[in-house]
Amino acid sequence: MAISAERPSVLFVCVHNAGRSQMAAAFLTHLAGDRVQVRSAGSAPAGTVNPAVVAAMSEAGIDISAEVPKVLTVEAVQSSDVVITMGCGDTCPVFPGKRYLDWELPDPAGQDVDAVRPVRDEIERRIRGLLDEIDEIGPTGGA
Description:
Elements: E1 9-14, H1 20-32, E2 37-42, H2 51-59, H3 74-78, E3 82-85, E4 99-102, H4 113-137
Parallel strand pairs: 1-2, 1-3, 3-4
Helix pairs in contact: 1-4, 2-4
């Protein structure tokens, strides 16, 4: 992973920025504190965060009720070290020198909290792995 900043930056992208990317950003913020700059965005943002996602995250001790979906911008991608997409297809701009990951996860749109919990738990597992990798490589990119 090419991380050159003192504080690495991770951008999570999904279509509506109302579910998967919100959960991922919240977990990374919760677990990393100020060690990582975290952003999330959507290629076609919804009006609000999915209420079942808010409830599932609340069960995990993380309050995302004040979050709002944000539109994906070229600037957000350019200023991120790592871009993790979750079903946004080809709408995410690609720039050299960035690390891109695609996490295939079920879309929680229209699902109840029972269906969201396994997605939440898988996202947390992946975030913990990502954070271990970031911590291992460090701000100099492993150099």
